[in-house]
Amino acid sequence: MNQVLRILVVDDEPGMRKGGDRILSRFAAAYPDLDAEVAFEVETAATGEEALETIAARPPDILLLDYKLPGISGLDVQGALVEQATDILTVMVSAYSSLQTVIAATKRGAYDFLVKPFTPDELRSTVRKAAHHVLVHRQALRLAEERRQVRFEFIRVLGHELKSPLAAVEGYLDIMQTHVLGDEIGPYDTMVERSLMRIEGMRKLILDLLDLTRIESGKKERALAVVDLEERVDAALELVRTEAQRRDISLIFERAGAVQLEADTGELDIILNNLISNAVKYNRDGGSVTVEVEDGEGQVSVSVADTGIGMTPEESERLFREFARIKNEKTKNILGSGLGLSIVKKIVALYDGDVTVESAADVGTTFTVTLSRAGGTGAEGTVATRGSGPPA
Amino acid sequence: MTAATRTILLVDDDVDLTTQLQVLLEAAGFTVAVAHSEREGGQVLAEVDPDLVVVDLMMEENDSGFTFCHHAKAQRPDLPVILLTAVTSETGIAFDAATEEERSWIKADAFLDKPVRFERLQAEITRLLGAPA
Asked: Do A350 and A333 meet the contact criterion of CB atoms below 8 Å apart?
C-alpha cells in the first residue's frame, strides 16, 4: 500500500528549510511489517506564526518544529496544537539539547526530538520512525472503528431476532384474548404450540448469546481434563434421540474405540450438541445422521454427516457468520438462534482446530471438526472454514 | 359480490404472521390462501386467482416482494397488492406508494410497515376492494 504523508518543516534558517525539503521529498520509507510504503510531501514555514497558518490551511501528518523561532517559539506552536487537539505528530528540533527543553516539549506532546546539527541520515531515520508511528496509530483507529461497526451490526440484528418471537407470541395472544376462534381452547392448540416454540427459540438465543459473550471475553474458566470423546458423542446423541425417533431419522455412530483428548467438557459438549442437533434439525424425515470419530496424530476429528436439505456453495460460504441463518423455503419452519456455528467456530479456535463443511443441496451436509489433542493454546486465532463442494 | 367470496393471498415467509393474519382475515369473512415464498406465491397466485394479495418484501431475497409484485401486476394489472415491509424500522429506508410516480415502478398499491397492525391492514383491504357488499 503506497501512501503519502505530509510534512511541515518549520525553521527560521533558509538552509535548514531547503535541506529538509530536498532530503525528505526524495525519501521513501518502506515498512514490510505494515505492508506499506510511504513517500513525503514537504512544505516549509519560516516562523511559528506562518507554521500555524499553514497548519490551519493544510494540516500536515508530521511536524518538524524548530524550538527556537524569531516570533512565537516552537513550544508555543506545540502548545497551540495541543489546544486544538490535532493529531499531528510533532518532532521537536533544537540546537539546545538541554534536558529541560526535552522535558518541556515532551510534556506538550512532542513525539520525538532531533538535535541540531543532524546528518541527512539522522533526519531520515527520525522521520521514518515518526511515519511508522503515524501509520500504526491510524491502523489502530481503523480497526477500532471496524470493531465498533461490527458490534453495532450485531446488536441491531440481535434486537431484531429478539423482537420477532415477541411479535409472534403477542399476535397469538391477541387472537386468543379476543376469542377469534370461539370460546373453546381446542382451536387455539397450534397457537399455543407455536408460541412455546418461539419462546424456546428465544431462550436458546439468549443462552447462546451468553456462551458467545463468555468465550469472547476470555473470562470463561477452561477446565481441561482428559475426556473420552465417544462418551461425549453418546451424550449429545442422547439429547436428540426423541426428536430423531419422532421424525424417523436414524442416528449412526461409527465407533473407533476409545479416543481421548484434553478438553473442557462444557466446550466439547457445545460443539457436539450444535453439530448433532443441526444434523437432525436440517434433515429430512426418514434420513440419517452419521457421526464418525477419528484418532489422528496429535489431533482428533469428529465428523457429523446428515442426509438433509444441504446447502448451495454460496450458502456454505456465509454459514459461520453471526446470525447467518440460511433463509429459504426448506428452512422456514426450522428455528435457530443463528449463533450456533459461530460459537462452534470460536470454541474450535481455542483448540487450535479447524471446522470444515461439505455440502450439496438436497443431498446433505458434513461438518468435520478437528481439535488438538492437548487442549490447544486457548488463544482465539483464526479458524480455517473451508466451504462448499459436493460431498466426496 | 359478498365479502365471503373474496379471496386474499398472503405471501410471507413468517409462518406465525401468516397463521395469525389467516385466522383474522377468515374471521372477517375472507377466503385466505397462503404461500411462504416468492416462488410458491407465484404458483398459488395462478391456482386461486385472488382478489387481493398481501406480500412481504423480504423473503428468499431482500427484494422478493418487489419481484413478486412485478410479476403479479404483469399478469393481472388490476390485482390490488399490499406490500409489507420491515425496511423502515430495519434500515431507515422509507418506501411509500403515495405518488403516481412511485407506484409506477414499485408495483404495489399500498405499503404497510411491519409489525402489521391488523386494523391497518383491514382498512387498506377495504380501501382497495371497496366496502363489503
From this structure: no
